[in-house]
Amino acid sequence: MTKILIIDDEEKLRNLLSRIIALEGFDVLQAGDCRTAWKKLEQLDIDIALCDVKLPDGNGVEFSKKIKEKFPHIEIILLTAYGNISDGVQAIKNGAFDYITKGDDNNKIVPLLYRAAEKVALTKQVQQLQKQISYKYSFDKITGKSKVILAAIELAKKVAATDTSVLLLGETGTGKEVFAQSIHNASHRSLKAFVAINCAAFSKELLESEMFGHKAGAFTGAVKDKKGLLEEANNGSIFLDEIGEMSLELQAKLLRVLETGEYIKVGESKASKTNVRIIAATHRDLQKEIDSGNFRQDLFYRLSVFQILLPPLRERVTDIENLAKHFSAIYSSKAKKKIKSLSPDFVEALKQHQWKGNIRELKNVIERSVILSHTDELAIEDLPVELQSVNSVPKNGKQLSAFDLASAEKLHIQKVLNYTNGNKTKTAELLNIALTTLYRKLSEYGLG
Questions:
Q1: Torsion angle of alpha carbons 383, 387, 391, 392, nearest 10°?
Q2: CB count, 10 Å around CB of 431?
Q3: In CATH, what number is assigned to the domain containing residue 383?
Q4: How many CB atoms lie within 10 A of CB 207?
Q5: Same structural domain for residues 295 and 215?
Q6: Burial 284-322, CB ≥16 within 10 A → b, else e
Q7: Which domain holds residue 211?
Q8: Confidence (pLDDT) at 389
């Protein structure tokens, strides 16, 4: 219920307004002066203050400024017995929602309260969403306890509090955008925009338009002005993924942004200004790209003031099980399944894999496994065949090669077992072999 505090030294008027407002379903409190009102504001979760201008111990216009500084979410409606334009203007400047005259505007109070209540509700909703987003992209949400990932997180936390440009290095799929978002949300820019663009996904011309914006008529199809991401991210952060793919011409323009905060829109002659933090990422070795003439050395120096290397998943083997559990919880919820655990051989198969696609590949594998699972436990049979056979050693101790006949037979038997959901009788029938032969081969290949 919306809480409204009436601040007025006229007791009869307070009581009258209180009855009228309470009949509308609002929770109403009263105070006769600034001192009493301040105590209630500090102790209670007030949404709207209906405040007189002339108070025994202060001026309502100045008091409204004090309220907004300490409690910015509270909406204030000022009341006065004498209409005064300058007071009204100052009240609005101080953050008041509105300013009305007693008596003349009594019929406006209730509709005004409803409008103020709507704004309060919207503000609270936005704040709640901001909290959810901040938590979703906080460093606490990065799964992993291995030394290498904890070291990367510690570096990111330290640089987040500054405005320094950051260069995230590492293989594709190691979580560079998650780190970039977390750095932004831990910074003083967190309430401003975070925008991301993959430099490898656009041609030079389109990337220039996306980043810097363009004027109408700048090129065929430019029918109206377009804001660029540098303008959208003003006072916030921009994440330039795969910056190693950016053309040399655009690199020069980006360097100007880093050095002066200025850029020129496509089709325009005058410079625009932006205050944006740049977080860049690449999987390439930029020093080699510099030697090859594909990347500007001066831009590299400006971007690489603070470098963070994100480790590949194969160097975070101790994190794989927790990551798998995390993703299985997400995807089982989406698939409306109740996956409670991961079998030991399932986890071991994950740990044995090389993960060239890193975390992105692991997410895809877990999502597929959840879809295929018929029980509340993810088992090795739910994995892709190539993961089921990774480093598998049959009970006779002989390592199987992907090129020998036995390995091919083993993979085929595993596929048929998956098809029959582990029904060995049906598997033997489909393979056209005796059940005893199947059991012998299962034992030989270590398939259970």
A1: 30
A2: 16
A3: 1.10.8.60
A4: 21
A5: yes
A6: eebeebbeeebbbeebbebbeebebebbbbeebeebbbe
A7: 139-311
A8: 66
